[in-house]
Amino acid sequence: METSKLQRIINWLIDGARSSGGPAEMIADVCEHLVEAGLPLWRFGIFIRTLHPEIFGRNFIWRQGKEVEVGTVDFEILDTPEFAQSPLRIVFEQGLEVRGRTDDPDSKRFPFLDDMRAEGVTDYVAMPMPFLDGSIHATSWTTRHPGGFSDDDIATIRAIMAPLARVSEIVSLRRTAAMLLDTYVGNRAGARILGGQIRRGHTDTMQAVIWLSDLRGFTALSDRLPAETVVEILNHYFDCQVASIREHGGEVLKFMGDGLLAVFPIDQYVGDTAHVCSRVLEAARASRASVDALAIPVGEVVERFRFGVALHVGSILYGNIGGGNRLDFTCIGPAVNLAARLEKIAGRVGRTVVASEGFANSCRQSWRELGEFPIAGFSQAQRVYGLAEEAPVVMA
């Protein structure tokens, strides 16, 4: 490859590959530029490890004439025979370059290359892509060219690795930041923080449905079971709610011991309060069914669980609150306070789902008025509603 053509590609990467719209497009552009400059590339893969509790990494696969395939791999892959016999395992664990010419008998040690050989591949190179933090990521390069990659081709691939690594690291860091924010503060809050809403006092007023729930009998449970078992139970218990909340348009803002606070934003311009409340109630029913079905063996006993959730609709203040340089992205306001009080009432009356008068009026379901209750901090007693389908349960 001509030095000038290679240098133009390197300079383009160093400049941030600005003409590309995103990671997949950037990878396609890199590969196509290299092919135009003379590299006999047929397939390229880039594998980026992620900082995510469930996802080991992401992969992008480019083939000539096809769109880039984007996928994710979970941690279970580390225990598979395929990974144990993969060239990428050597790259990830040892940071070494691995080459496998398909006409070389030694390449038989990598079953993956049998698939490549069947597709007409003549040469394969896997190269480490180190980031500045010392983590090792990987790329793979294959060709169908007779005789495989030349020495000049390998030199070109090695020359492109450093600038490719820098751009990939920048993209990866931004995605990691977004994923961590999504994981720990929620997707909407994460997007706001990443967008620059980071100063204390940066808040917005939002109309929303508030969901506040907790696990019945949690204090007694914590007292009689080992802490590790309690954590396991809580994780399973929260799984029963989080999937339903997100599926129905909500965002989990925080976990507070066994408590969960979530919000379901209401579009003030569309005026979709009734629709949002209906979806929230669907999520509550789905969560109730999941918790009812939850059974965790602990020793010789199978633990079963009950929970309560309070639903209210109102105006909340949503944003950064805290002290010094330690902030929390959360929501506050009288509506949140009322939801918290209603959740306690749910436990007193033995109900799983209770709603405020405002929520019940917005969601025309089969509600039964449970009475008026004095609420601490509120000048007037509040009407509380329960689902007609539920019978009160007295907790032992």
From TrEMBL:
Guanylate cyclase domain residues: 209-343
InterPro entries in the record: A/G_cyclase, Adenylyl/Guanylyl_Cyclase_3/4, Nucleotide_cyclase
MF terms in GO: adenylate cyclase activity
CDD domains: CHD
GO biological process: cAMP biosynthetic process; intracellular signal transduction
Domain of life of the native organism: Bacteria
Annotated protein name in UniProt: Adenylate cyclase
Source organism of the structure: Bradyrhizobium centrolobii
Species classification: Bacteria, Pseudomonadati, Pseudomonadota, Alphaproteobacteria, Hyphomicrobiales
